[in-house]
């Protein structure tokens, strides 16, 4: 399946990554529909994200000492920490992962990543909304300057306004999603085959035909949501 990628955007030294979709076979031998985070927009996914046990998500990545890693929680190296906005992500973070990590938390927050690009270490984050039945990956950014820390949620090292429309989507379970929007932009919901499923303007709760992964597109922004 072709990987669908969002457009990358540069804000000062902090770069927006892309969250795509596809399929892969993990070390246990089963094939799963998966998100992938491509932090530097080069077409290579640094972190693969698939449905895991108990309807949580499972992150896998190429691991080596000093290389790609996920910030671990106090539960252990194989559980990703869910951080609050403003948490510093850098060399002193808990980089204890060893190639995979389960998301075992509920709520909204940020997951910290260490990314090795061109033999240099960078730090980044991904925003996630986690309910008891779904994990929605909202966006991902990384610090383009090597070895420099970044704060969770920081999208710009300067105060730069963007023209990107402000809207969001969240899975509610039972094959429904909630779209919140602060303008009259038309938003369109597609399944992974590219078929238009729904469209709306403003705040809406939409009933979708099936469980699975959907793509919500606006004029300048694209989000994906897993619907249960």
Task: Describe this entry's structure for a reader.
- The chain is mostly beta strands and 228 residues long.
- The chain is globular and about 45 Å long.
- It has two domains: 10-151, no CATH class; 167-227, Immunoglobulin-like (Sandwich), CATH 2.60.40.3580.
- A six-stranded antiparallel beta sheet has the order 1-2-14-13-12-7, with no helix packed on it.
- The chain starts with 9 loop residues before the first strand and ends with a strand.
- Residues 1-12 and 158-165 have low confidence and may be disordered.
- The chain has no helices and 22 strands.
Present the secondary structure layout:
Layout: E1 10-11, E2 14-16, E3 18-25, E4 31-38, E5 47-51, E6 57-61, E7 69-70, E8 72-73, E9 76-80, E10 88-89, E11 100-102, E12 107-117, E13 120-130, E14 135-143, E15 150-151, E16 167-173, E17 176-181, E18 186-191, E19 196-201, E20 204-207, E21 212-217, E22 222-227
Antiparallel strand pairs: 1-2, 2-14, 3-4, 4-5, 5-6, 6-11, 7-12, 8-9, 10-15, 12-13, 13-14, 16-17, 17-20, 18-19, 18-21, 21-22
Shape, per Cα inertia axes: globular
> Uncertain segments of ≥5 residues (pLDDT<50)?
1-12, 158-165
Number of H- or I-type helical stretches: 0
- Overall domain count: 2
Number of strands: 22
Mean pLDDT: 77
The helical percent reads: under 10%
Oligomer: single chain
Structural class, please?
mainly beta
Which strand order spans the largest sheet, edge to edge or round the barrel?
A: 1-2-14-13-12-7
The end-to-end span amounts to 21 Å
Q: What series of H and E elements makes up the topology?
A: EEEEEEEEEEEEEEEEEEEEEE
* Beta-strand percentage range: over 45%
Question: Radius of gyration from the CA trace?
Answer: 17 Å
For the biggest sheet, the summary is:
6 strands, antiparallel
């Amino acid at each position: 399946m072709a990987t669908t990628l969002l457009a990358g955007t540069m804000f000062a030294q902090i770069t927006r990554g892309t969250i795509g979709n596809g399929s892969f076979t993990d070390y246990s031998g089963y094939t799963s529909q998966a998100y992938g985070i491509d932090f530097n927009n080069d077409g290579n996914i640094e972190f693969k994200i698939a449905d895991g046990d108990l309807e949580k998500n499972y992150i896998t990545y190429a691991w080596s000492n000093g290389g790609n890693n996920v910030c671990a929680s106090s539960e252990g190296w194989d559980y990703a920490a869910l951080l609050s906005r403003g948490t510093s992500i850098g060399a002193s973070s808990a980089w204890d992962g060893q190639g995979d990590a389960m998301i075992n938390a509920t709520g909204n927050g940020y997951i910290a990543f260490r990314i090795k690009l061109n033999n240099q270490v960078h730090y980044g984050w991904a925003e996630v909304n986690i309910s008891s039945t779904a994990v929605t990956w909202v966006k991902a950014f990384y610090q383009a300057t090597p070895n420099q820390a970044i704060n969770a949620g920081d999208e710009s090292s300067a105060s730069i306004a963007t023209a990107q429309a402000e809207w969001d989507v969240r899975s509610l379970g039972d094959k429904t999603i909630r779209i919140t929007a602060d303008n009259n932009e038309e938003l369109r919901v597609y399944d992974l085959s590219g078929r238009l499923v729904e469209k709306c303007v403003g705040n809406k709760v939409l009933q979708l035909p099936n469980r699975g992964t959907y793509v919500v597109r606006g004029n300048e922004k694209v989000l994906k949501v897993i619907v249960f």
